[in-house]
Amino acid sequence: MRQVLALGVAVAVLAGCDGLVFGPLQKPGGPVSPGITDPGRLRTLTTAQVFEELKGTCAGCHADGMNKPFFASVNAFQKLLVEDTAWVVPAKPAQSNLLALLEGRGTGQYTQMPSTGDTFSKLAADGHTTVNMAELSLWISSLETQVTTPTGPVVDTYLKRKTAEQILNALYKQLGLTESDFINSDLDAIADYATRSPDDYFQKYGEKPGAANWVALGGPNYVEGLARKTDVGATFAQALTPISQAFCRRSILKSGNNALFIDAKLSDTSATAKASIENNIRSLHLKMLGQPATDDDVAELLGLFQEVEPKGTTTAWTAVCSALIRDPLWVFY
Ligand code: HEC
After folding, report:
1. For residue 159, is it within any domain?
2. Co-location of 169 and 146 in the same domain
3. Cα–Cα distance between 249 and 244 in angstroms, integer?
4. Number of domains present in the structure of the chain
5. 9, 61, 78, 136: which to mutate for ligand 1, most atoms within 8 A of CB?
6. What pLDDT, in 10s, does the model give residues 10-56?
């Protein structure tokens, strides 16, 4: 018998195994760990093990770069799924929606996972997964309320990032700006980076400058039915770079605004006032990232400043300021 499962993203071809059907996205090779469905022999699994065991069934649709990259890494799994009480309530399997979803009893947007074909619990009962519902339940029971982050490389991009609102508020506050600095800006290049919720300005302005930037930062657009996004995909990264640069430059050019100049003046150059520039970098690091800069941090940012300095100190400070905004410490919290 030859069975072909085509599911858009993955195709499992199985030859010569009568009666065996693989679940969506499971690699040919099939169930391993025979015996684990024996209820007498339940294993108590760690989160990292659960990740490994679910991966075969889930990663095809939840890998790096996908909408919900729960299975991009063990850390993504931990941060996005295990630590989200909407899905997993430590020590309370009955209240954990993840299990309901795997059993086809989900009450949210989706009633089951995998989203197509058999439910996970059916696949597990039929022996097509390496972990069963009882073990998943036991795993959740064993999770302590204080979940500790697994060791290993931290995938920074999967920590929780600021929402569009938080980004905008932080930019305005840290850079000494207000919305009107963009709306009435005589600087065309900067007005292009106005960023505003389209749901907010309709009444206020009757037009919609800034909506595209808002949406690119992941802000919702309810009028047009676009949901909020909090992933850190290419769109976000590509939007944040020029937006941060425009906001920083606007801050520097705004007359009477010293938000970015705590220890140095705009006219200071690294040839004449290197110490002031270093001190200012230190102060900005603390102000914008909430953490004292190490000497290495200062040296790195000074290097950036000096690299751009031939184009003028406005551009050099724009580069430093924008680099701080694109620092993971700024973007994530
Ligand atoms: C065939 C593709 C596919 C597979 C396989 C799959 N999922 Fe999903 N899953 C989706 C889609 C599509 C969504 C909707 C969200 C999105 O990615 O846009 C989703 C959403 C989810 C959500 C959020 C549901 C909600 O209502 O917000 C969870 C939790 C989830 N999946 C867990 C899993 C787990 C655990 C597995 C493995 C057992 C799995 N998924 C396997 C396609 C899949």
Report:
1. no
2. no
3. 8
4. 2
5. 61
6. 222 223 333 333 333 333 333 434 334 444 568 888 899 999 999 99
Q: Does one domain contain both 23 and 70?
A: yes
User: Tokens 């657009």 map to which residue?
Assistant: 221
Closest-CA residue, ligand 1 atom 32, reads 113
pLDDT tens sequence across 211-268: 888 888 988 887 778 888 877 777 888 889 889 999 999 999 998 999 999 999 999 9
Judge residue 14's burial from the number of C-beta atoms within 10 Å of its C-beta, 0-12 exposed, 13-18 middle, 19 or more buried.
middle
Question: b/e string for 33-67 if b means 16 or more Cβ within 10 A?
Answer: eeebbeeeeeeebebebbbbbbbbbbbbbbbeebe
61 pocket-lining for ligand 1 (C-beta < 6 Å)? yes
Per-residue three-class SS string for 277-315 = HHHHHHHHHHHHHCCCCCHHHHHHHHHHHHHHHHHCHHH
Give the range of the structural domain holding residue 304, as residue numbers without chain letter. 164-331
